């Protein structure tokens, strides 16, 4: 018996980009100490008050089927959050609650792409993007965003690939680069989407982690509200990665059809988790800032270390929980540098090549260990780069 071409072709026949991560976990399983700076997982747990709210809800019986679109309370809370943050009027009819941001990405592309449609995405990219597009039957087409342009896509970059495409996936603040798209960049995205009749799927799960600049959603640009689906999540903003609760915000008609899709796939999100998310959003900025504070501190610590040398370069790190480091001066690829660093010092970072060709010669460092350990680890990385430099 044969499996479907769609499921066997999710990675495009190549690596899924997680080889280094898997190798590091294998070392850990074998009893070796490894400092992991690989995945975007907080080093703090979900706040106890959120867990208490989840427990109360479950104990009070909200453990059965919840409404597939999401509870009215959570949809209203997400809508109010988006209205306040972006100025775009949003109601519960514009919101579908999903089992995390990844589910929202998958569903959004199902909503706008038919089998064989071309779906654009920016390179560097979060590792699941190409597979997500293939998974809905779309044909992925990458847009190279180069390091000399701070990895930001321009109108010209998009226009060069836009003929015949149906959608454009963008991500700001950006994973893996930590770049926050400028107003010029977002306006260029909007111009390209309108001129080439593209749906814009905007992954904004890091919108609370802004260290420099301002987060600008493409949905706020004139003419974009009707052609933009925004992806949000509680994972990064509230350290609720394992709770799996996110959302899609967009035009009412699109949300109505996405609710139909959810009815036939996920069948919603557990009610007690939604109640915990509603509670978490009600705590306002104070809790979000508490969750983001360690990354703000570690970014400053990292900048201070990197400013004292000229071998490892830092891509402008304006948001999210990552630093993208330029290690091309060592003469190694990101893959080789990461592999040698792991072998020599038991430090695991993600090769830039895991996120696309445009990030070759870079490594991504997740700022997800305690401050002093992060300083020591980053200094070790820098010293290692100096040692192996030609």
Unreliable runs, pLDDT <50, ≥5 residues? none
Mean pLDDT: 96
Order of helices and strands: HHEHHEHEHEHEHEEEHHHEEHEEH
Major sheet: arrangement of strands? 2-8-7-6-5-3-4
- Structural class, by secondary structure, is alpha/beta
The total tally of domains equals 2
Number of helices: 13
Give the overall silhouette. Answer: globular
- Proportion of beta-strand residues: 5-15%
Radius of gyration, in Å, reads 21 Å
Q: CATH homologous superfamily of the largest domain - what is it?
A: Type I PLP-dependent aspartate aminotransferase-like (Major domain)
- E-strand count: 12
- Major sheet: 7 strands, mixed
How far apart the termini lie comes to 52 Å
Helix content: 40-55%
CATH class of the largest domain: Alpha Beta
Organism: Litoreibacter albidus
Cofactor: pyridoxal 5'-phosphate
Keywords: Aminotransferase, Pyridoxal phosphate, Pyruvate, Transferase
GO biological process, one term: amino acid metabolic process
Put the structure in a nutshell.
The chain is of the alpha/beta class and 390 residues long. It has helices spanning 5-8, 19-29, 48-59, 72-86, 101-112, 129-135, 155-162, 183-195, 252-264, 271-282, 285-306, 334-345, 371-388, and strands at residues 35-37, 95-98, 118-123, 139-144, 165-171, 199-203, 228-233, 246-249, 313-314, 322-326, 347-351, 362-366.
Give a verbal description of the structure.
One of its GO terms (biological process) is amino acid metabolic process. This protein has 390 residues and is an alpha/beta fold. The chain has 2 domains: 5-45 and 286-388, Aspartate Aminotransferase, domain 1; 64-283, Aspartate Aminotransferase, domain 2. Helix content is 41%, strand content 15%. The chain is built from 13 helices and 12 strands. The N and C termini lie far apart (52 Å).
């Amino acid at each position: 018996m044969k499996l479907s071409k769609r499921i066997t072709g999710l990675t495009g026949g190549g690596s899924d980009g997680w080889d280094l991560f898997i190798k590091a976990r294998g070392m850990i399983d074998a009893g070796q100490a490894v400092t992991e700076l690989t995945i975007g997982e907080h080093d703090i747990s979900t706040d106890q008050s959120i867990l208490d709210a989840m427990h109360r809800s479950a104990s009070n019986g909200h453990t059965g089927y919840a409404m597939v679109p999401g509870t009215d309370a959570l949809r209203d809370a997400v809508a109010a959050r988006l209205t306040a943050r972006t100025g775009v009027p949003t109601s519960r009819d514009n919101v579908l609650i999903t089992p995390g941001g990844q589910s929202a990405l998958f569903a959004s592309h199902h909503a706008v792409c038919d089998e064989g449609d071309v779906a654009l995405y920016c390179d560097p990219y979060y590792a699941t993007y190409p597979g997500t597009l293939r998974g809905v039957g779309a044909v992925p087409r990458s847009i190279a965003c180069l390091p000399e342009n701070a990895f930001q896509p321009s109108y010209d970059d998009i226009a060069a690939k836009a003929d015949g495409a149906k959608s454009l996936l963008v991500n700001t603040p950006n994973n893996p680069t930590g770049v926050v798209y400028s107003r010029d960049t977002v306006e260029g995205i909007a111009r390209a989407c309108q001129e080439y009749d593209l749906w814009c799927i905007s992954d904004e799960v890091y919108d609370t982690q802004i260290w420099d600049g301002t987060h600008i959603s493409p949905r706020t640009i004139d003419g974009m509200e009707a052609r933009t689906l925004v992806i949000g999540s509680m994972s990064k903003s509230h350290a609720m990665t394992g709770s799996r609760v996110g959302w899609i915000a967009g035009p009412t008609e699109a949300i109505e059809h996405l609710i139909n899709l959810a009815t036939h796939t996920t069948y919603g999100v557990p009610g007690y988790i939604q109640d915990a998310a509603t509670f978490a959003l009600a705590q306002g900025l104070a809790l979000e800032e508490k969750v983001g504070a360690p990354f703000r501190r570690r970014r400053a610590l990292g900048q201070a270390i990197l400013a004292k040398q000229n071998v490892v370069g830092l891509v402008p790190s304006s948001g999210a929980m990552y630093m993208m480091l330029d290690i091309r001066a060592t003469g190694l690829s990101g893959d080789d540098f990461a592999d040698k660093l792991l072998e020599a010092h038991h430090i695991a970072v993600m090769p830039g090549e895991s996120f696309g060709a445009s990030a070759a010669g870079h490594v991504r460092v997740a700022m997800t260990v305690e401050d002093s350990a992060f300083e020591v680890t980053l200094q070790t990385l820098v010293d290692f780069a100096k040692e192996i430099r030609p």
